[in-house]
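Go through this chain.

——
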Amino acid sequence: LYAVDIIGNIFRIDFAAPSGTERISTVKSEGRLFANVSDVNGKRRFYNSIDTAVSKLGLQHRIHLNVGTGQRPDPLDLINTNRFYSIIDPYVLDSLPGTADFPVITESSLNNTTNETTIDDGNGWYFNLPNAGEKVLSKSSTRGGYVFFTTYYPPEPPDPDEKTCQAPWGKGYMYVVSLANSAALSDSRQFAIQATGIPPAPTFLTLEQPPKDPDDPVPPLIKDPYISTDSKTVVLTGTELVDFGDDGDKLRKLFDTPAEKVYWQQL
């Protein structure tokens, strides 16, 4: 179990597997502070739960703890610089050792990839969001080796002498970064969202495609009831289909796996 408090302390709690006839309610847990990435100035806040993703480097399994910062009670703040973090836990199949063998991870032990990405090593990475006041106000999601998250960039304060009938809503962005080192798909990590206001978290939706042959009345799904080989996965924020431009083809290849249908029956 991983948990993060509002200032950036991340905790890991291990649960021992029950043995023999031991009831699950009697299993004891053991945990400790795993990482501390709090802001010394107390400006960055962690309001989102942690998005976990598993990767493998050589023979070693790792868990990535992904989370972004942003002052949720003050969405119009235009001063503070927020960050997105991906912290690596290498103790996936073993209990977490004591701090003497594995000290608490701090920001100084992470790779700062704001301006330049690094190789896939160390305790993880973080980068600054490019706009002061831009903030992460929802949980990220990881798929295909990339982390997806949305941000909100508030509007400039309105001119008190300017008469307008439209409220300034601000704008949002979708970010797509490599789980390994925060690298972009190609040129940019950031993609504009058309809808104004605070954007929802990213959602993945797998769609079944119509038959490729217009003269074939039987969809591929009917031919194979378990695997839909003619499907595609798209990324939404709310009801908006995000436009990734030229990177859309790369994402389609990233998600190019058949959708397997799972059936169940309640007895």
Remarks:
- The chain has two helices and 18 strands.
- The first strand starts at residue 2 and ends at 4.
- The first helix runs from residue 220 to 223.
- The chain has a mean pLDDT of 85.
